[in-house]
Amino acid sequence: MTPGTAHPHLLQPLDLGFTTLKNRVIMGSMHTGLEDRFYNYPKLAAYFRERAKGGVGLIVTGGISPNRQGWLLPFGGTLNSIFDVRNHRQVTDAVHEEGGKILMQILHSGRYGYQPFVVSASAKKSPISLFKPKALSERGIQATIRAYVRCAELARKAGYDGVEIMGSEGYLLNQFLCARTNQRTDRWGGSIENRMRLPVEIVRQVRAKVGPNFILMYRHSVLDLVEGGNSWDEVVAVAQALEKVGVTLFNTGIGWHEARIPTIVTSVPRAAFASVAARLRQAVSVPVAASNRINMPDEAEALIASGGVDMVSMARPFLADPQWVNKVASGRVDEINTCIGCNQACLDHTFANQRASCLVNPRAGFETELVYRQTTQKKRVAVVGAGPAGMSAAAVAAECGHAVTLFDSSESLGGQFKVAMQVPGKEEFVQTLRYFTRRLEQAGVKIRLKQRVTRAQLTAKSFDEVILATGIVPRRPSIPGVDHAKVVTYLDVLQRKVTIGKRVAIIGAGGIGFDVGEFLLHDPAVALPVPLAHWCQEWGVDLQAQSNGGLVPAAPAQPYRQLFLLQRKAGKPGAGLGKTSGWVHRAVLQRNGVEMLSEVEYTRIDDAGLHIRVNGVDRVLEVDHIVLCAGQEPLAELMPDAAAQALPGTPTFHRIGGAALASELDAKRAIREGAVLAASL
Ligand code: FAD
Ligand code: NAP
Ligand code: SF4
């Protein structure tokens, strides 16, 4: 097959009348944190340059506020003065030098701002905000419109090809659009005509200022997924009014940030909401892009080939792989580093006020700092352990020009990731294994599987450097009766080595305890990944948007097992899970009636079950099985002591990932540590 012919519709140019996009792929807006400080613009330019070089048709920046009230965070990225223009020039020049096109997103956060100047349609605090907003006055609204117009004009001066006006995810314009947040009785509230007046006025006045040859994309909320969200008729009426006053194309947004329905985490079925974008396409005559959980080209191609939508917008997949489009165009889909929807290094970082990066690509956001240079001193490198840390280290070391051998005692690559991908909703993790397998092969790494390496072998084979990435061993707590036949480990369960009964206690409520919970609750009669219709039923989503906001009563299936999830510490189980995904795991377990207990003392295990004491009260959990998910210890038996290291001819030993430190371990840290060490050899 000729390169790229498998995805012809995706790679087709899109003529917008006054300009042409080279393909149908948008890199959607993501806040990286770099846009907030002027001194980080060289890094931001390098980040976008890499993505433009990767062939994407249209890039959208992270949200830039038109004024101080619109800040997401104190002193967040703002474009309201001619002095800011030269910072943005670095970005637009970099993208244009690589033949790309870029829009600046204008984002006014409204009541979602984490700062004291917040404003909204009405003075109603959001459930996820610290600050109560002030309702904008008539004068305030006029000033806000002027700020948008000034911001768009400055973006034009800075060389952007257009702007995206953020009208979804529950930010200011969405707050004006919906009765949930707009309780005004003046000409900006009440009927949908009044509620849409602000976005319509903004688009009208921006268009008048910037002229016809400037892309004006509007990110429209097509499914609010909150009570008091808009009906489908209102969504359409707004889009048609916006089109009339000058929108060039629509991007689509799904769900407000405060919605209690997941919209982008890995357990959301791929392209789940594309049909809603396709419905909008029927109602307008300008192009429409589908968004959310589109991460691989086959789904993207199918969406465009069907004529449902004109473009696809993918954000996180471009953190994971800047070369996504070029790889599709040259028929190298198997080389794509797929975004697995974990949110661990992107959104979770943003919410923690850290720079966004990517679990599977630690260079994202660090393009100028984590550089894989060719070595001038080729070394013989042994990497022991082919989990995320070892695979990452071996790939980078080989790409830098070293001679690398990667050992693993098991039959295949992947380490614990092979276990993780057994968890319902984590099916995407298999993509990371496919990606690394291909990358290691291309980099010329010698792979030695089914070899449990000893220290003697490592020293005898005259390696210059040895990287120990041997991972962990599960912790076995010393509870009386822990050797009882009812007790199994998370590996026994997830590797399906045992048949588990209907009543189960899980010791340990960390990430693995929650995952084991979801695994045990899954009814094997339901296919994996979970079909879209089933997922919508479980969460109460109406893709036909018959009801306001697209919400219907959830109709979850009966719990498949009765579970207890236990921890010794005080506080909410799962408090340490990711900010943007932990609530989803907790919601699934709560919906299935899992009894979650904190401050538990494990007294013993016997034929009756698990004996515990909580707040001084003894209780027996009469369960068929007890699963140990009590954390992990480093496996670093191959590490020589200092005296042995000093012997002549001994290679230099390093430890990464779980082998270095098991607490707070995750694949993000493992992959990053592997890459950073290998780049420094
Ligand atoms: P490992 O993945 O443990 O790999 C170590 C490798 O070393 C193994 O393949 C082992 O066979 C090999 N080895 C050991 N000793 C030797 C020897 N002497 N000779 C040869 N080979 C040897 N992390 C996340 O970030 N996000 C998640 O959502 C997530 N979910 C998870 C769900 C589950 C159920 C589990 C079990 C883990 C999950 N993790 C998750 C954790 C993540 O998988 C680990 O943090 C990561 O795999 C650690 O990587 P590592 O390379 O250090 O070690
Ligand atoms: P973990 O998050 O450290 O949780 C271990 C659990 O075991 C805790 O609930 C702890 O709570 C309990 N525990 C610790 N020592 C114990 C003992 N001696 N006896 C009884 N209970 C004990 O580790 P994990 O769940 O094993 O996960 C391993 C790593 O994989 C984690 O670091 C995690 O980040 C990663 N992971 C991530 C995800 C994700 O979605 N991001 C998912 C899975 C795994 P108490 O001490 O209070 O009892
Ligand atoms: Fe995707 Fe996870 Fe990377 Fe974010 S951190 S871009 S969700 S793979």
What does it look like?
This protein is α/β, with parallel strands linked by helices and 681 residues long. It is built from 22 helices and 27 strands. The strands form 7 sheets. It has an 8-stranded parallel sheet. Strands 15-14-13-16-27 form a 5-stranded parallel sheet, with helices on one face. A 5-stranded parallel sheet has the order 18-25-19-20-21. Strand 1 (14-15) and strand 2 (20-21) form a beta hairpin. The structure holds flavin-adenine dinucleotide, NADP nicotinamide-adenine-dinucleotide phosphate and iron/sulfur cluster.
The radius of gyration is 27 Å
Q: Tally of extended strands?
A: 27
Strand content: 15-25%
The helical percent reads: 25-40%
- Cofactors and ligands: flavin-adenine dinucleotide, NADP nicotinamide-adenine-dinucleotide phosphate, iron/sulfur cluster
Number of helices: 22
Poorly predicted runs are none
User: Can you summarize the main beta sheet?
Assistant: 8 strands, parallel
Strand order of the largest sheet: 10-9-8-5-4-3-12-11
How far apart are the termini? 40 Å
Mean pLDDT: 96
> How would you sum up the global shape?
globular
Quick description:
The chain has 681 residues and is of the alpha/beta class. Helix 1 packs parallel to helix 2 (85-97) and helix 3 runs parallel beside helix 6. The mean pLDDT is 96.
Top keywords for this entry?
681 residues, alpha/beta, globular, binds iron/sulfur cluster, binds NADP nicotinamide-adenine-dinucleotide phosphate
